[in-house]
Amino acid sequence: MDRTPKIRTYSSCRPLFVEVDQIYHLACPASPIFYKYNSVKTIKTNVIGTLNMLGLAKRLRARILFTSTSEVYGDPLEHPQKETYWGNVNPIGVRSCYDEGKRMAETLMFDYYRQYGIEIRIARIFNTYGQRMNIDDGRVGSNFIAQAIRNEPLTVQLPGTQTRSVCYVSDLVDGLNQLMEGTDAGPINLGNPGEFTMKELAKAVQELINPEVQISEVENTPDDPPQRKPDITKAKEVLGWEPKVNLHEGIPLMEDDFRQRLGVPRT
What we know:
Elements: E1 22-25, H1 32-37, H2 39-60, E2 63-69, H3 96-116, E3 120-125, E4 128-129, H4 140-149, E5 154-157, E6 163-165, E7 167-168, H5 169-181, E8 188-190, E9 195-197, H6 198-209, E10 215-218, H7 233-239, H8 247-262
Parallel strand pairs: 1-2, 2-3, 3-8, 4-7, 5-10
Antiparallel strand pairs: 6-9
Helix pairs in contact: 2-3, 4-6, 6-8
């Protein structure tokens, strides 16, 4: 479960090569199952780990990109969410190790920018899915696809009307690269503004992968936001970026990858 132990230790952040001009700081579990498993280590990764990476960037005079999250908007009172929105986060909730940790990391990034002149880039990533994702990741995209392949009921958390906007991984990677190579520090939302309810997403997976599979409802987890949709106006204007892969194109690609790793061929 502990996937990012090294950046919490400063000695582990010493570069193997002296010439480093760009640092991509993506460390931190993003699935609620994983980041709530050890909440203290999660927030340490976000805070102490980010401090260590910023120290490395300062020493090397390297540009650093930090992957923040749409979770900084919490249970948003603004929809869709713009980068200027400060959010509505529960600072003592079960998800706060992640969302408040990311908010603190953004603060540290800008403090190092203002105090030391470090070149920073901040991406606020919305829900992402795609190939090579952990099959038992616990997030809705991987859950539904794995369940459909295994012929298990698709478990929709109540009430099922909560929305998410899911972006295919290749689009996200393009956005991160463009942000790093650009001139804007951010934060910049990176996500697909196509918005689906959990019931709609389950039905799309059912239709595309396994029409015979059932859809069942289960209890929700605490602090699950009812709406999440990025406003990507800034990404379009500043980076010239917008997602290209739609849901009905991305799901089959992820299905093929999951089937290969699960050893379950198409019938």
